[in-house]
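Final report, closing paragraph on structural work. Over the funding period we assembled a curated collection of sequence-structure pairs, and we close with a single example.
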Amino acid sequence: MINMVEYEIIEAKEIKFGRNNFIEVARKKAISEEGENEFISISRGYYLEDGSKKWKASIALPMDQEKRDEIADLIKNL
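Its predicted structure, as stored:
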């Protein structure tokens, strides 16, 4: 049996860089028969000629504030 998961974007912000690249940081919710799970998604992508978005890679981060602070500190201090 395949468990279907739906993703809901709660809030998203975008940072453009380079010629047509972007990084999207979003708060999302995964919804399945087993329940719901919120997480932070960081995705890299680019714009197609028609202006639509294409994603290359994504990573999910925990909602735990302590872990998010630790990750932010690592990024700031690199």
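The longest helix spans residues 65-76. Residues 6-76 form a domain with the Nuclear Transport Factor 2; Chain: A, fold (CATH 3.10.450). We thank the funder for supporting this effort.
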